[in-house]
Amino acid sequence: xxxxxxxxxxxxxxxxxxxxxxxxxxxxxxxxxxxxxxxxxxxxxxxxxxxxxxxxxxxxxxxxxxxxxxxxxxxxxxxxxxxxxxxxxxxxxxxxxxxxxxxxxxxxxxxxxxxxxxxxxxxxxxxxxxxxxxxxxxxxxxxxxxxxxxxxxxxxxxxxxxxxxxxxxxxxxxxxxxxxxxxxxxxxxxxxxxxxxxxxxxxxxxxxxxxxxxxxxxxxxxxxxxxxxxxxxxxxxxxxx
Amino acid sequence: xxxxxxxxxxxxxxxxxxxxxxxxxxxxxxxxxxxxxxxxxxxxxxxxxxxxxxxxxxxxxxxxxxxxxxxxxxxxxxxxxxxxxxxxxxxxxxxxxxxxxxxxxxxxxxxxxxxxxxxxxxxxxxxxxxxxxxxxxxxxxxxxxxxxxxxxxxxxxxxxxxxxxxxxxxxxxxxxxxxxxxxxxxxxxxxxxxxxxxxxxxxxxxxxxxxxxxxxxxxxxxxxxxxxxxxxxxxxxxxxxxxxxxxxxxxxxxxxxxxxxxxxxxxxxxxxxxxxxxxxxxxxxxxxxxxxxx
Lengths: 241, 294
What we know:
The structure holds two protein chains of two kinds. By secondary structure, chain A is an all-alpha fold. Chain A has a single domain (11-235), classed as Phosphate transport system protein phou homolog 2, domain 2 (Methane Monooxygenase Hydroxylase, Chain G, domain 1). Chain A has seven helices and no strands. By secondary structure, chain B is an alpha/beta fold. In chain B, the strands form two sheets. A seven-stranded mixed sheet of chain B has the order 1-11-10-4-9-8-7, with helices on both faces. In chain B, helix 8 (193-205) runs parallel beside helix 9 (223-236). Chain A binds chain B through residues 1-4, 8-11, 14, 22-23, 26-27, 29-31, 33-34, 37, 40-41, 44-45, 79-87, 130, 134, 137, 141, 144-145, 148-150, 219-221, and chain B through 1, 3-4, 7-8, 11-15, 18-19, 21-27, 249-250, 253, 276-280, 285-287, 289-294.
C-alpha cells in the first residue's frame, strides 16, 4: 500500500472524501506541531505573548478534531469502507485524538510558561526542557512525515525514539528532585518545569501512538503494546539503531 | 535563544509542503499470484475441488482452481462480474451439464463421492447439494406443493402426516411458517419477493441437503427481506454447509466464515472473512474490496 492508492476508487466522490480527510489531518498535524514549537519557545524565552497565542489557538485544534471525526463518521456511514480504507479511517480517528491531546499538552506547557513569567524563572531545568522538547518535537514531525509518506521505517524509528525520551525524562526528574531537596525555596518554580517536562514526555507518547497507527494503516498489523524489536518485525523493516 | 529560532526554521509546519514530499508511484497492473493466497484448503472438507478448469466453447472461464468447502461452514464467493464465481458454484451440483458448450475439468468430491462420476444419479446429487437462485422461482403451485414436491419425488415421506411434518419444519426453518400457515393452499407465486425467496429456501432444505448453494439469493430483495435471509443463513449454518455467491460485500462479510475472491477466472485469495475485509493479503483482493475496480 502506498499513498497513490487513495486516488483509485471507482467512485471519485469517495476519492475526494478520503483526500479531504487526509489533508485535514495534515493540516491539524501542522497546527499541533506549531503549537508544540511555540509553547516550547514561550517557555525557553519567557515569552508570555507567545504563550497566550498558544492558548488561543487551542480552539482551532479542537474544531479540526471535530471536523475530521465528522468526515470519518460520514465515510463509515455512506461508503462502508473495507480493508485499507477501513484501516485508514480507524487510524485517522485515533491519530486525531492523539493530536488533540498533544495540543492539550502544548497548552499545559504554555500555562507553565505564563506561571513562570509571573513567579520569576526557575533556577534549574531549562537545559532539560530544551533537550527533551527538541527530541519530542522531532519525533512528532517525523511521525507526521511518516503519515504523509506512508513511511513505515520512519514510523518504527519514531517508536524506538520514545524509549530514549522516557530515559531522558527519568534522569531529568532525578536531577530536579535532588535539586529541590537541596534548595526547598525553589520548589514551586521547579515544579512548573517538572509539569512541563511531564507534558513533553506525554507528547512523545502520543507521537509514538501516531507512528503505531501508521504501521497499522499500511501493514494491517496491530503493533501497540509490544517491544520495538517486535514492531520492526511486524512492519518488515530493519530495527532502528 | 537561538535554539528556539532554529526550532522554527527547521519546522515543517506547512501541511502543503509535507504532502508535496510524498512519492508518487504509477498505478501498475497487479499481477496474479502464482497460486491461491491464504487458506484455500481445510482440514475437514465437505467438498473438495482440485485443478478445476471450465470452458465455454473455446474460451476458458475458470483456471486451475483448488478449493475446499469445510463442513458446516458458510463460504462466500466474491469477485467482479464475469470472474467465474457463479460458474464455479454451478459446477458443484452439475448445473452446467445443461449448457452444451460448457466443459468442466478437474476433480469434484462431495465427501467420498465423485460428483462427476457418470454413474452418479444427478437428481440424487441435487438433493444432496441444493441450490437457491438469484430470482425467486417458486413452482406455479400451492405453497404446500412447492415444499412437498422434492420430498415426494425422493420418497422421503410415505404418509400424509409425514409430508405435513416435513413441510412445516422446512417452512419453520426458513422463517416463513408463521406468515403462510393459514394459506398453504394458495399459490406460491402470490407471495412477496422476500417470502418467495424464503419459500425457495424452504423447498431446497425440505429434501435435507448436505450442502446449500446460493447464487446471489438477496439481490432482488429489499433490505428487510435481505436481513431475514441473512439471519436464516446464520441459523442454517450449524446444520448445513453453505456456499454463497454475492455481489454485496457487506453481505459476504456478515454471513460467511471464509471468503474466496475470484478474479477473471482465477481464485486469487481465500482467507477468514475477517482477514479478507480488514487486511487482505493480495493486492487484487484489496483493490476489489475497497472499490477500486469491479
